[in-house]
Amino acid sequence: MIAKLHVKDDTTIVSCCDDELIGKVIEDGIKQLDLANDFYKGEKVTEVEAGDLIRNADQVNLVGKQSVAIGIKEGVIEEEHVLKINEVPYAQCVVIK
Predict the structure, then answer these.
(1) Count of domains in the chain?
(2) Tell me, what CATH number does 55's domain have?
(3) Which of 33, 43, 58, 90 is most open to solvent, judged by the fewest CB atoms within 10 Å of its CB?
């Protein structure tokens, strides 16, 4: 998977996306996930590295089955809060510490 760390002031945002989705734009009516923009273009990471980033972030943006599954495993999101666009799961959250 591909992860990117965004840091601004005291806030850390992690974007994490399954490899095969990077560079795509997923649309369904007015809903859109633009995975071709720089927000998601990061570095290839392992599941352990992604888990560490997600667990320690203030906000997370997860796209794809593998990325969302790690967010669930790390306890930052719950399965019932996962949304889908054209069967692609995604989730966004603010982590309360």
Answers:
(1) 1
(2) 3.30.1860.10
(3) 43
